[in-house]
Automatic annotation (TrEMBL):
Segments passing through the bilayer: 12-33, 53-78, 90-110, 130-148
Top-level taxon of origin: Bacteria
Full protein name: DUF1648 domain-containing protein
Keywords, sorted A to Z: Membrane, Transmembrane, Transmembrane helix
Length: 321
């Protein structure tokens, strides 16, 4: 089952997201009452303001950036020619997320400053509001990427790797791991920073940071398995969560060169169910591409991908014969 929208629906959603970003920026400026000038824009862990920005400058910069993001979304929705593979979701998700990550904090800042005579008197927004802004920005980007996944695109599908040459009756399996040291260090440092913040400052902010650090550790290591059951990818040092693609869902397997910019950066990009494509991108270079029988695809960066593809092709041919 696929949850990707029809092209007409996807185009409409992109236009609606663009309009929503513009309205989310304009309406608070018009509706919110008296505001100080300058506005408090940053606070420390205790909620005390630490810096300010001129009201006109803040509104102008945020408004202009959101307008550019909205125009980009409308242009994608109305683009007459097929896009390159991955281009639509990456561009739409990026533009929408940038617009939301500016528009939503602007609303929060204006609400916090409402009615104050001096920016130094403005208390910081609550932790739940900050979390809502972050989650809202991610959600807006995800919706736009989901909508753009329906746009016509051209995908240069690589030729399948020749099946592994092994004696008949031989059971073949392949596995390889990939660790990213800097990601493990970064996630560990984030967890420590969160714990320290919770101990000496804001408990809510500290716990949020610690949980975020623990979550990112999932992508500091992966282990990939290929055998007669299909493909399995486990994440993190505890081998959880995991992605499984049964052999009967695989149409072809091939080794490819993975470029992070084509997938919108590093990490777990996309969704096989929502966007019809997903990639685990931990570095630039060799990777394994799996094309599914329903047209969707999954990519993972891993060394010796050609052998993994050959194993899967051998098992796929054997199962079909």
């Amino acid at each position: 089952m696929t949850l990707a929208p029809r092209p007409a629906v996807g185009r409409s959603v992109l236009i609606v997201v663009a309009l929503a970003l513009v309205l989310a920026t304009v309406l608070p400026i018009v509706a919110i009452g008296e505001l100080p000038d300058p506005l408090a824009t940053r606070w420390d862990g205790s909620g005390t303001p630490t810096s300010s920005v001129g009201r006109t400058a803040l509104v102008a910069v945020v408004g202009a950036t959101v307008l550019v993001a909205a125009v980009a979304l409308v242009a994608l929705a109305l683009w007459p020619r097929p896009l390159r593979s991955n281009q639509g979701p990456v561009l739409a998700g990026g533009a929408a997320a940038v617009g939301a990550v500016l528009a939503l904090p602007l609303v929060s800042i204006l609400l916090a400053n409402q009615g104050a005579e001096d920016w130094r008197e403005v208390a910081g927004p609550p932790v739940w509001e900050i979390a809502l802004v972050i989650l809202g920005s991610l959600a807006v980007g995800a919706v736009a990427a989901w909508a753009a996944s329906s746009l016509p695109s051209v995908d240069e599908r690589p030729a399948p790797t020749p099946p592994l040459d092994a004696p008949e009756g031989t059971q073949v399996a392949w596995t390889r791991g990939l660790s990213v040291g800097w990601a493990a260090l970064a996630s560990g440092a984030t967890v420590v920073a969160g714990v320290v913040t919770a101990a000496v400052g804001s408990i809510g902010v500290g716990l949020t940071v610690a949980v975020a650090g623990a979550a990112t550790s999932i992508l500091s290591r992966i282990q990939v398995f290929a055998d007669h059951r299909g493909l399995t990818v486990t994440y993190g040092w505890w081998a959880w969560p995991r992605t499984r693609i049964p052999l009967d869902r695989i149409a072809s397997a091939a080794a490819i060169e993975v470029v992070p910019s084509q997938w919108g950066g590093w990490g777990y990009r996309g969704s096989v169910r929502l966007f019809r494509q997903a990639a685990v991108v931990l570095r630039k270079g060799e990777g394994l591409r799996i094309d599914l029988v329903d047209g969707r695809r999954f990519v993972v960066t891993i060394d010796d991908a050609a052998t993994a593809a050959a194993v899967l092709e051998r098992e796929r041919v054997r199962a079909a014969s």
